[in-house]
């Protein structure tokens, strides 16, 4: 069956489109080589906020006539030298050759490193090693935090965030989810600093202050992650521990308790063995740019989530689900991120249903689908970013496609597939088989759907007999909201009171006596937030509810409170991460006199600002609070 316009096949049964996959977000020639392994040897210098060291890539040419190796890199990464080691012939010693290279512009989020390879290096299917010595500082992947930006405010901390295409500023790489390899790392740090990485094995030499890491399972470049700082740990299960700054460790442990092992066991019962060995969690300061990140063996999660038990539960379970969907089996292109996020969201809700029941899962789903429809109203039904197969032009940062559609529309599509097979447990069996089939590989939508129809041949036969096609094409390439949503009536016991109170509150003459009978102290966080969201969706709101303090900087700048926003910024900017400081400067001081491309230094007086309030949507962008997504 033709799915998404792709129906040809090539060697090994993979689709022709997969064999000729083009990743417009990567400048690399990843099709020309097999990346067998890479090693990082790094020294972290907190005083000057710099990482120096080298990288060794073990490669095998897979195409004839290749004369260069092209890797993704970034202007913040300075290459010092490149050489390669070629095995000597007939037992002779290895030969080390110095290689010429050039850096070329690619997009505003990266460059290309073009390395010339002499003929002596390129022998089909014969491995060779390339060593790149480099220094990197404050690129988009690397977040240096001064002590005052950490939770404990005593020692500095650094962490990396590779998703989607940021790790090219951490190390030169094939920065595409289509390429997976094992890796290892040696990291040297000052005394008192603990280093963690998304690796399956680690060791530490206290005498040399050297940490050693090894990831024995193949991962894409964006899942290589590092954090270093004043970190301590506590075991919370037979294969899990929590890492955090000392001041929040006890709180983190108490909030998670023994739940992580329980969630892992439920997930394994649904989707098969957890293959990564360890499942550890590190809590990062509030400047962590997203809620959580599914780095294999080591989930990164923002420490402020400890304020909400329910959001903590949902986000950790979501990252656990990525151990199967996204990490073990990965979307081969960023244009199909739903293959990771949509499947992980579905798996997360299967886990919460088994662990906490239908009502809890339906409440959380209603809350998220409300947010999806709110975003749909902002963007319009015909906006192409609402497609599951979202095509983007060269130069567009894939991170711009991270929106609720990849999560919630993707979830609804996976739920539709589950409904097609008619039995949720049969669909669980399909997902287990899918993971077993494609584990440690990268896939496109056709791989999933072909395997689905092979697993349920009666669906394909039924379509042929009835001359009615399945809705795959409309789901994948159609704009707008999901074609259908799962039945969430099992959550009425929790969502019903929320809607009832919303209806009472929205009446022309609300009755305080009736409203006062609702005991909001017994409500869950999701009920409370769903109630507030639905109140804000009503237009107009009673004047006593709506005020300019609810939104933050963007809406303050759009009203009479801009001077207040500027004053708050001046008082707090020293405690803001430079990336956040730059963003707020752009919001507050949009004018030609202010060059936001430079490093964001502390401001002692306001730049020339426009006299009239700025409209945050005038340039076609959407406020962050309107497109916020879960982990």
Descriptive overview:
Keywords: Hydrolase, Metal-binding, Metalloprotease, Protease, Zinc. This protein has 17 helices and 22 strands. By secondary structure, the protein is of the alpha+beta class. It has an eight-stranded mixed sheet with strand order 5-4-8-2-1-11-14-13, with no helix packed on it. Helix 3 crosses helix 4 and helix 4 crosses helix 5 (338-356). The longest helix has 22 residues, at 358-379. Mean pLDDT is 88; it is low at 1-18, 591-600 and 607-631.
Q: What would a concise description of this structure say?
A:
The protein is α+β, with helices and mostly antiparallel strands. The chain has helices spanning 16-19, 246-256, 259-271, 309-322, 338-356, 358-379, 404-421, 424-438, 445-455, 457-466, 472-477, 492-505, 512-515, 525-537, 553-557, 562-572, 578-588, and strands at 33-45, 50-61, 68-73, 77-86, 95-98, 101-107, 110-116, 128-136, 142-145, 157-160, 181-188, 194-197, 201-205, 210-219, 226-229, 232-237, 240-244, 280-284, 292-293, 298-302, 329-331, 441-443. The chain contains 17 helices and 22 strands.
Structure keywords:
631 residues; 17 helices; 32% helix; disordered C terminus
């Amino acid at each position: 069956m033709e799915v998404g316009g792709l129906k040809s096949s090539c060697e090994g049964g993979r689709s022709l489109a997969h064999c000729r996959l083009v990743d417009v977000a990567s400048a690399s020639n990843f099709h020309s080589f097999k990346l067998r392994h890479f090693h990082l040897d790094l020294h972290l210098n907190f005083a000057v906020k710099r990482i120096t060291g080298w990288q060794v890539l073990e490669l095998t040419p897979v195409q004839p006539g290749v004369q260069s190796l092209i890797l993704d890199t970034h202007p913040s990464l300075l290459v010092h030298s490149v050489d390669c080691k070629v095995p000597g012939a007939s037992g002779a010693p290895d030969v080390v050759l110095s290689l010429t290279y050039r850096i070329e512009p690619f997009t505003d989020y990266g460059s290309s490193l073009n390395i010339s390879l002499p003929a002596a290096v390129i022998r089909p299917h014969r491995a060779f090693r390339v060593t790149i010595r480099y220094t990197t500082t404050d690129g988009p992947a690397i977040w240096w935090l001064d002590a005052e930006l950490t939770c404990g405010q005593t020692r500095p901390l650094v962490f990396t965030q590779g998703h989607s295409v940021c790790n090219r500023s951490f190390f030169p790489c094939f920065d595409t989810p289509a390429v997976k390899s094992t890796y290892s790392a040696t990291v040297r740090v000052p005394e008192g600093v603990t280093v963690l990485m998304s690796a399956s094995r680690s060791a530490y030499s206290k005498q040399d202050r050297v940490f050693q890491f090894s990831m024995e399972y193949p991962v894409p470049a964006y899942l290589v992650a590092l954090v270093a700082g004043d970190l301590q740990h506590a075991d919370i299960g037979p294969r899990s521990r929590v890492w955090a700054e000392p001041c929040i460790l006890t709180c983190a442990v108490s909030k998670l308790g023994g739940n992580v092992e329980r969630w892992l066991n439920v997930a394994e019962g649904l989707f098969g063995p957890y293959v990564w060995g360890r499942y550890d969690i590190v809590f990062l300061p509030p400047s962590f740019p997203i809620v959580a990140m599914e780095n294999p063996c080591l989930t990164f999660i923002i420490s402020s989530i400890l304020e909400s038990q329910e959001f903590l539960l949902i986000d950790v379970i979501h990252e656990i689900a990525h151990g199967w969907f996204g990490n073990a089996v990965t979307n081969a292109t960023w244009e199909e991120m739903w293959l990771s996020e949509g499947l992980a969201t579905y798996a997360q809700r299967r886990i919460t249903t088994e662990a906490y029941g239908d009502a809890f899962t339906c409440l959380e789903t209603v809350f998220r689908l409300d947010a999806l429809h709110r975003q749909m109203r902002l963007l319009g039904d015909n906006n192409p970013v609402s497609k599951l197969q979202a095509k983007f032009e060269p130069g567009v940062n894939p991170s711009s496609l991270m929106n609720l559609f990849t999560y919630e529309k993707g979830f609804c599509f996976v739920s539709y597939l589950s409904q097609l097979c008619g039995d949720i447990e049969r669909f669980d069996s399909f997902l287990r088989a899918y993971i077993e089939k494609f584990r440690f590989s990268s896939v496109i939508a056709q791989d999933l759907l072909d395997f689905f129809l092979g697993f349920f041949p009666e669906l394909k036969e039924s379509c042929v007999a009835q001359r009615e096609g399945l809705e795959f094409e409309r789901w994948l390439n159609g704009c707008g909201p999901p074609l259908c949503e799962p039945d969430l009536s099992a959550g009425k016991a929790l969502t019903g009171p929320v809607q009832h109170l919303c209806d009472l509150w929205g009446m022309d003459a609300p009755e305080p006596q009736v409203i006062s009978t609702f005991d909001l102290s017994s409500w869950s966080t999701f009920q409370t937030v769903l109630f507030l969201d639905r109140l804000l969706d009503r237009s107009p709101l009673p004047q006593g509810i709506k005020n300019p303090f609810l939104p933050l900087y963007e809406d303050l700048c759009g009203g009479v409170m801009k001077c207040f926003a500027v004053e708050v910024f001046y008082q707090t900017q020293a405690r803001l991460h430079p990336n956040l400081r730059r963003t707020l400067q752009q919001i507050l001081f949009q004018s030609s006199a202010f060059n936001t491309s430079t490093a964001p230094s502390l401001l002692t007086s306001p730049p020339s600002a426009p006299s009239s309030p700025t409209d945050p949507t005038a340039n076609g962008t959407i406020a962050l609070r309107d497109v916020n997504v879960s982990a």
